[in-house]
Design goal:
12 strands, globular, about 220 residues, alpha/beta, disordered N terminus, ten-stranded mixed beta sheet, two-stranded antiparallel ribbon, about 20% helix
């Protein structure tokens, strides 16, 4: 299902004096998580991150620098108007707004996947925020105030963290996702935590979000 333009094949595209970005990969697939599961999308995955989660499944430090025009020409090859900006952590990329403005002017719907520690650019149409419980200390001082959806990975005893995030971050949807370590997802622990969160009448309604793209053997 994944349609990929390999990084090495993008290097022949014209490059001028313009912003360049750390790009891990650009590909077309289906959104596998959260509210927009199943939505055909172009994924632009940026390199580098401001966190180092031990269960992260993205090699965000293996990237190639691509110019704005190289990225745009690659995106144009796909018959799709939905773009998911992801990483790594996309909000820390220098001159990210220049790229987003170019894509926006071309008529693309822009969604972002962020850990919520850095402000989200105003060009973004849909925010999926995934705060990380192992960095709870950081979130006491920094956290965006709004997201369309919150997705928290159940990597520990995360009930207090989920409750704290829900009090500070207003969202339309709240999800808890299993943590995968060694190819095993802790689904029982995750749905148990969801039940405990939803037993509080003052809590927002939490739902299960699984990385369904892995179950479907797509990227």
């Amino acid at each position: 299902m994944k349609a990929v333009v390999p990084v090495q094949d993008m290097r022949h595209l014209p490059s001028t004096e313009e912003p360049s970005y750390k790009i891990v990969e650009i590909f077309h697939s289906l959104q596998g998580e959260g509210y927009n599961t199943g939505m055909p999308s172009i994924f632009i995955r940026f390199g580098t991150c401001n966190l180092t989660c031990d269960w992260c499944d993205t090699e965000y430090n293996k990237f190639t620098r691509l110019s704005l025009s190289q990225i745009y020409q690659t995106v144009k090859q796909y018959d799709c108007k939905n773009i998911i900006i992801t990483g790594g952590e996309p909000t820390i990329q220098p001159q990210i707004r220049t790229l987003l403005q170019t894509l926006k002017q071309a008529g693309y719907f822009l969604a972002i996947e962020t850990n919520g520690l850095t402000a989200v650019p105003p060009e973004i149409d849909y925010i999926a925020c995934s705060p990380k419980a192992m960095y709870a200390e950081k979130y006491r001082d920094k956290l965006i105030e709004y997201a369309d959806e919150v997705r928290i990975v159940c990597d520990d005893d995360i009930l207090p963290f989920c409750q704290a995030i829900a009090q500070r971050l207003t969202a339309k949807h709240y999800y808890l996702s299993p943590c995968e370590r060694g190819g095993v997802m802790n689904i029982l622990e995750t749905i148990t935590a969801i039940g405990q969160l939803n037993s509080n009448p003052e809590s927002p309604h939490w739902q299960l979000s699984i990385q369904s793209h892995k179950l479907a053997n797509i990227e």
